[in-house]
């Protein structure tokens, strides 16, 4: 979904054509983290270190990790709910910000979205229901995709290729070294409920906080089987990383469309049919993601074992994208950073 982010000007602009799911966007440019080549190379290494820490020291860090995850999920889900809350409060509440001293100033929509998010996290902690965990995981996915950006196809290829190797190694080969599938164990291991830990530390009695369930952390989406006997899992990294690539190609489609409109140039090289020129990079990559996800699901059913989803998602998204970019003559431009080569005073659609 496209996000047009400009929190600084949203109080001044009254654009009736804007949708409830869009934000206005210049002031968050400083908050957006652009991944460079070095970060793309070292991110799989950092993820491997974090995985090993969770594997060896899970009992020691599980409560701290659960609390940190709950806080991040609260903030992320509040960000996800904010457009809806802005739409609901717009008719009956002014956009003036309410001061909370050193905590800052917030609008009524921001307070409402944060309150709803806190309520959802508390219900999840008390019940541990998988639907609530999936909702929090979706909030984390949306927040990460909104605030992280891939600047070029080169960085995209480095990042996704490194994460593919990371995913394949820890799913298929970690058992030969650690006598256990590290990725599966960390992903499926439930954590102690902080309420249970708190009641034991404070000696509140056997009936206080002891009936709360252990928590499966929202680092994944889970889907129950038709019989309800087991759950299928999809890590949020398998959503976020291809999602960043989809956002990159959608921004490039918008950039190219505007560049062609400004220069009134004819579309594409002469050896490319007009039909292929009409196919956007976004739709090509999105279809590849769908086919890759479907292939990963079928492979998991056939082998009856966990599959590294990026093993299927990366080839089905990157290879069609690279092929189409080469045929259209855009590969050289996409490989660099095309969005820095054009400056304009008009407002861009930020993804």
Automatic annotation (TrEMBL):
TM ranges: 40-58, 64-85, 106-125, 131-150, 157-178, 231-250, 281-303, 309-327
Assigned protein family: Belongs to the peptidase A22B family.
SMART domains named among the record's database cross-references: PSN (SM00730)
Region (Disordered): 1-25
Membrane-topology descriptor: Multi-pass membrane protein
Protein name: SPPL3 protein
GO biological process, one term: membrane protein proteolysis
Record GO cellular component, one term: lumenal side of endoplasmic reticulum membrane
